[in-house]
Amino acid sequence: MSLPVDRPLVRTRLAGVCLVVGAVLLAATGALDPSMPGDSSGDLLTYAVAEQGRWTAWSLTLAAAGLVLLPAVSALGRAVRGRGSALSVTGACLAGAGMVGMVLVGTSEADVPVLAGSQLPVPAEVVSVAERMAGGPGLGIAFLLMLPGYYLGVPVLLWGLRRARLLATWVPLVGTAGVIGSWFATEAGDVWELLFRCVVALALTATSPVLLRGAAPQPAPRSVLARNVTA
To answer: Where do the TM regions start and end (predicted)?
Structure first.
């Protein structure tokens, strides 16, 4: 006779695996991140035509990272009871929104090579269409979810887990440094972007044991203990 499976524990450990896989995918986005010569729609489309494979790989990897990290972030938010729970849940909500935004941005950007076509220079009418699409609400909402969710939500979540005494102090320190560095590295070049994405990935991987081993149970409030003793 087989023993019953602890399904909540299995789901938590699967979320831990998702956290590790998502961290690897996040680091891969740093390696694939497009290095464009300018910020205009014409520059973007020109790069997408010249580097269609890299652009598509980057956008799909970004979407996959957000999709895989979403259940892990949700599980981390549920892992804390008592001390640090407010900070952890706030960070999980922000980071979860960031992961949704990451999926939306990645899937949207995957269409850019299709829009750009294969002709260089990119026709002016195609550039005009791309500019109108970039000004639409869909992509704007995606970035509004992704940017605060990633750059603010991830550090808040890690510090909440530290307050709950589920992480060593170096983990949120490294994660916060990586997120801040990643923000400034967008203008510093591919090597720095890859470096800081890997730093964030390291912090997320170091967080995975919280889920892989199951979060340590939080101590019950004294009032509950008192009722149990008198019962």
So the answer is: 55-73, 85-105, 139-159, 166-185, 191-212
